[in-house]
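Students often ask why we bother predicting the structure of a whole assembly rather than each chain alone. The short answer is interfaces. A chain on its own may look different once its partners are present, and contacts between molecules only exist in the joint model. In this exercise we take two input lines together and write out one structure for the complete complex. Read the inputs first and try to guess which parts will touch.
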Amino acid sequence: MGRWEPGASGRLREAALALYLERGFEQTMVADIAERAGVTARTFFRYFGDKREVLFDGSSELEERSLAALEAAPATASALDAVSAALDAAAETIGDNRDLARARQRVITANASLRERELIKLTSMSAAVAGGLRQRGIGDAEASLAAETGIAVFRVAFERWVNAAEDRDFGDVIHETLTQLRTLTAAS
Amino acid sequence: MGRWEPGASGRLREAALALYLERGFEQTMVADIAERAGVTARTFFRYFGDKREVLFDGSSELEERSLAALEAAPATASALDAVSAALDAAAETIGDNRDLARARQRVITANASLRERELIKLTSMSAAVAGGLRQRGIGDAEASLAAETGIAVFRVAFERWVNAAEDRDFGDVIHETLTQLRTLTAAS
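Now the answer. The structure tokens for the assembled complex follow.
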């Protein structure tokens, strides 16, 4: 009880998502999640601050990896190429586990306060990417626009990827969406 | 008392914005707004459901006008041109009163729950624009991407316009941002 439990964090995450889908997020208690995962509530709190954090604790890793890729892009890369590198890193971070991403998305879509949290997360990501672009010497105006455009591509690609019947990689869907953006803006 | 008050809605809006800036949104009561505007609280509630609605009651007009412009765009217009027509209509709707837009933005930026409300409004706008594009016969994937891109342009242009020292029209800033988007996506 309360000791280190190998694999507990993964089991807790799976149990939480299953219960959020079965009963709804609001109706699920931390004690239910712990019971389903075969651990104590105390063990739950060793890994997650609350039941919402199970859904959002990947955000900081996503942001860190994306920003690292943005920073590592060649100095000659255009603003959108740098953003594209960040999107690739995001796809690698999320893309390992499509079932998890799908379950998470269904839970979030079903709950207004979780949808708000997700929107805030994306807005904060946009601000961070704009900051990273400014550090690359890109002007304020272009940096904000490239970041917002990148978030738009991410949102659309993510929705396609979690909803698609087929099994393409998230990275492939991101590239397709970026190509479509170039076509869209070149068309007129 | 409670009768029709000519100009009361405009006075209430100005009084509310002034108080939100002076005292903060949370600290302002409907009674304070009514008193500042020289009307009763009952008159306030003839125009606005609550103190938050003073800030967001323009949203439905904005959405209606933007969607009407989208629908009225020539059948030959590309997805992004149709979105651009919607953005022009949005600029016309908002652009009349820059001081009001600025004050409103400062109030919203200062309050987390208002920022969330604004994000939700933009997301709903994006969904509505995507729906309008699908009605023009544009495929799902392209419609979502064009709508999200349009919202990205709107956000960036709006921020520039309310923050800029100069006095360009909101429509001009939108056009400049759209041109910048084309340059950005063509650059690589």
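Check your guess against this: Chain B has a mean pLDDT of 91.
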